[in-house]
Amino acid sequence: MSDNITRARSEPPPRHTRILIIGSGFAGLGLAVRLSQQGYTDFLVLERADDVGGTWRDNTYPGAACDVPSQLYSYSFALNPHWSRSFSSQPEIQRYIRSVADRYAVRDKHIFGCEVTAARWNDTAARWEVQTTRGAFTADIAVSAAGPLCEPKLPDIKGIHTFRGKIFHSARWDHDADLTGKRIAVIGTGASAIQIVPSIAPAAARLDVYQRSAPWVLPRVIHSYSRPERFAYQHIPGLQRLVRAADYAWRETFVLWQNKFPPAAALIALIAYIKMRWEIRDPALRRKVRPNYRIGCKRMLISNDYYPALGRDNVDLVTDGIKEIREHSIVSSDGTERAVDAIVLATGFRVADSPTFDLFTGRDGRTMSEVFDAEGVQAYKGTTVANFPNAFVLLGANAGFNYTSIIYAIESQITYVLDAIATLERRGVRTFEVRKSAQDNHNRLLREKTAGGVWLTGGCTNWFTDKHGHNTALWPDFSFRFRRLLRKFDLDAYETTPSVVAVAD
Ligand code: NAP
């Protein structure tokens, strides 16, 4: 008997489930909870790591914290009156996510340590066939909840592989690496870097911060909640929702100057200038940190300790660009060689070219990467993609918010997915696939909304704009409009095939 036949006989048949969710960050976990609240039991969550939490589980770098107010950073169905401060730290957020998994008893719906290696649509069987590191699965409906910030982007710098010291990405922090008294380089000055730099600078012998573009930095109004405040949030009905609503409304005003009326950004820029002037005494350093693009073009950052950290005697902001990395040093483009023991790559994530796109093979045999390469990264309402039947993508194209809580986007999409599943069952629909024309119309509208906005015209490069100059990641309008768009599943926008037995409406 050949090896192949032996293996084929010993392999268990694929495990079938109605709904298969891939990833258990805020999105996948939120969907699992809502499904279970609605009485669905026939679903599974595949998670490659050994815990829930997604990006908040993975980003354990020193100083990791959220720059969206805590009151907005929870599910609407599980407010957290126990936040210790107005902007939460990563450990506190991760504890919250874990507590939700426990409180809503969805851990037993998870298969941890289970990495999806391929997901192929079988048109004849009308199912997703999913290969994983823990066996094969089939599903009527697949939900990608892997998220846009799941895969680190590693820079392609000459000689990087020859470096002999410690080198790691901010989202894969090496906690065994003792950085005390070491010469450290941080590459990047984005949202992660500006939290890392002040946290590691005091203990470092030297810290070189390699900046390619200067970020706009605004003050962070941080407030520790007192016991009476937390008690009030816990016991006064509606109080926390009121504060949450106020935070929400304030954040919505960001859309006005980002997308609707960019000249209003001058006021925000003025605040940032005053802060820069106040916190940096050295004019040469001030010149280096002054951004050369309009505020809002990249994600705006908030920090009270980044500029002071740059001003420390043991910290150097290097703006000359990196020419090459050698075994024990980094050479900048002006020829200066700086000795270094450890390099932190705070260089962001693969959003527009996420490797998760390679996993999905659609109806016509092309992977999502191939479709996106040819047509650009697109989705219908950020949630479904033509050529990929019976599939949803949470935080898909243009479903991201850069000014308010991403959980608001996630919950909007979950509403849509739940309504879709109920509609399909009610109407006896076996397969659904968004019409390309509906997707194209949606994307045309998105482009109209983005045109003239600061993301495209602000004179910067950013991770939400693709190589064709299209914003493919962010929702370019008020977040409540996103919610309105997704409040009902619009079956008319989809090609469908009926189930064998249809249930009358
Ligand atoms: P990022 O914002 O994409 O920043 C990456 C940084 O690395 C940028 O300064 C970039 O420079 C630089 N860089 C990339 N490749 C480089 C290269 N080859 N050589 C030199 N510099 C290079 O990444 P991030 O800071 O990890 O943040 C990513 C996203 O995570 C954020 O936008 C945000 O959505 C999320 N995040 C959120 C929080 C939060 O508080 N909620 C905290 C951290 C992260 P350029 O600007 O010139 O490209």
Describe the structure.
Pfam families: FMO-like. The chain has 505 residues and is of the alpha/beta class. The protein has 2 domains: 2-151 and 350-498, FAD/NAD(P)-binding domain, CATH 3.50.50.60; 160-223 and 256-345, FAD/NAD(P)-binding domain. 32% of the residues lie in helices and 18% in strands. The protein has 16 helices and 20 strands. Strands 1, 2, 3, 4, 5, 6, 17 and 18 form an 8-stranded mixed sheet that branches. Helix 2 (26-37) crosses helix 13 and helix 13 (406-427) packs parallel to helix 16. It is globular and about 75 Å long. Residues 1-5 have low confidence and may be disordered. NADP nicotinamide-adenine-dinucleotide phosphate binds next to loops.
Contiguous helical run count = 16
Q: Which ligands, by name, code or SMILES, are bound?
A: NADP nicotinamide-adenine-dinucleotide phosphate
Overall SS class: alpha/beta
| CATH fold-level assignment of the largest domain | FAD/NAD(P)-binding domain
Whole-number count of domains: 2
Please tell me the CATH architecture of the largest domain by its name.
3-Layer(bba) Sandwich
Let me know the CATH homologous superfamily of the largest domain. FAD/NAD(P)-binding domain
Average pLDDT for all residues = 95
How is the biggest beta sheet arranged? Answer: 8 strands, mixed
Supply the CATH class of the largest domain: Alpha Beta
Distance between the termini: 53 Å
Number of strands: 20
User: Unreliable stretches, pLDDT < 50, 5 or more residues?
Assistant: 1-5
- The radius of gyration is 24 Å
General form:
globular
Helix % is: 25-40%
